[in-house]
Amino acid sequence: MTTENRPTPAGAPRAGTDESPSRPAAAAPRPHTGTDPGPSRPGIRAPGEEAPVRQPRARFLLTLLHLAALGVLGPVVFGAVAGLAGAGVGLIVVLGLGLVLLVGLVYVLFGVAWFEVARVESLYGLGAPPLAPQRRVRPGFAGFLLRIWHQAVDGRMWRSLVDFALASVMGMAVVWLFQRLVNSAVTAFAPLGSADTVPGPLGFGIPASQAPWVGALTVVVALAGIAGLVLLHRVVAVALIGAPVREVELTERARASAEQREGAVRAADVERTRIERDLHDGVQPRLVSVGMTLGLAQRKIDEDPQGAKELIGEAHTSAKAAITELRQLARGIHASVLDDRGLDAALSALAGRSHIPVHLDVRMGGRCGREAESAVYFAIAESLTNAAKHSRATGCRVTVRLRPDGTLWARVEDDGVGGARVLPGGGLDGIMHRIRGAQGTVRLDSPQGGPTALEVSVPCAS
Which residue spans of the chain are classified as CATH 3.30.565.10? Predict the structure, then answer.
């Protein structure tokens, strides 16, 4: 459905707020691109996604070329690494210069390991994620040293280095076997010459009459050796780089689960703080005022009935306002229409209560999960509240789609002054944690001068 709603006197549901610079600038809303941020983990394939397929012959030839190149470059790389390690150890007593070289050595080894993972992944498509540097877990210099230590003892990095070393050794063997193959091919035609004895494939002399079958046999052995090394390279690469992929995936899932749990806890804390603030700043003072007004009316009811009547009327008005605020607060905690009629109807009611015009474009072929719909609803509600309070927007566009992959996607864009930032405890902070708690993703784009666009994407299975 597509509707456009104008503001009504009723107040929008209150939620946490985030500040935007108050600049008297406004920009027209940018057209919706329909892009979904969805930052998946780099290098890890989604469930059901297949690895890129190479033809066996092409993969064989590529592996052979890789081994030949490593047979030439591998010794150079390890020579440079050995030289850097020797210089670092030798200069460790010279004003600590050796420590700088050893730190550099750690990251040189990381670079070699990263290259090896990328190389093997390009050949076999094992689904191995790119090797990433260790993150700093503590601030300051101690955190830097701890990060270097974790990088130096990273098991995945060392497995990749071992694979690189073994591939280099196999590459040197491939180069040697290729040389023997060429020599054997030349030896096989030795009887065409006049010499009685010719150099054999291994360097020793053999009779010219035996050269054809010796050369042919050596060619077959060399080809078999090259093919065996190519197959052995795959076995070793899968064992050292491909096997830990499952472990990495489980680690990523555990980390994502921890982030989801942290986001849910943080969202609940932000929501609790918001409710406490709204009760303390809004409903509570109004109810206290109602009580005081009724107390004054009780004292005046005998001597000044008219004045008491006016005080009772004032208390009645304040009580109705308190009921309205409680209703809005309850709606901010849970929108009953969301369960009864779905996200489409809930957003229509929300847009109708907005203080700024809202262009609503919702296209859903059915219902989504309750958690996903609730997360998207409150993200949109908070965005509209922020647009009305801080961005000086004159209009807002809300787009919601239920995508074929089972993802509920929404985009809220206003034509305000922009500059929105995520502040701890603020409305955008609550949006971030609520969406992460539902295993979703959030992207905020709010340059100075506007416009501000917020995109959320939540899996319906959440």
Answer: 2-42+253-459
Residue 199: per-residue pLDDT = 62
User: How is residue 115 written in tokens?
Assistant: 């290259």
358-363 and 205-207 beta bridge pairing: unpaired
Residue type, 36: D
Max alpha carbon distance in the chain (Å)? 144
**At CA 239, angle to CA 236 and CA 241, rounded to 5?**
95
- Return the sign of the alpha-carbon dihedral for residues 290, 295, 297, 298: positive
- Report the DSSP beta bridge partners of residue 87: none
Residue with tokens 């203080």: 355
Residues in the chain where the model's pLDDT stays below 50 = 2-53, 462
Q: Identify whether the C-beta of residue 444 lies closer than 8 Å to the C-beta of residue 454.
A: yes
Give 74-110 pLDDT, tens digit per residue: 899 989 988 888 888 888 777 678 888 888 889 899 9
Distance CA 92, CA 101 (A): 9
Residues paired with 207 in a beta bridge: 197
Give the C-alpha separation, 268 to 430, whole Å: 8
CB neighbours of residue 323 within 10 Å = 12
Which parts of 91-153 fold into alpha helices (H)?
Answer: 97-124, 140-152
Give the separation between CA 238 and CA 66, rounded to whole angstroms: 16
How far is 454 from 448, CA to CA, in rounded Å? 15
pTM for the structure as a whole: 0.48
The yes or no reply on domain 2-42+253-459 and CATH 3.30.110.30 is: no
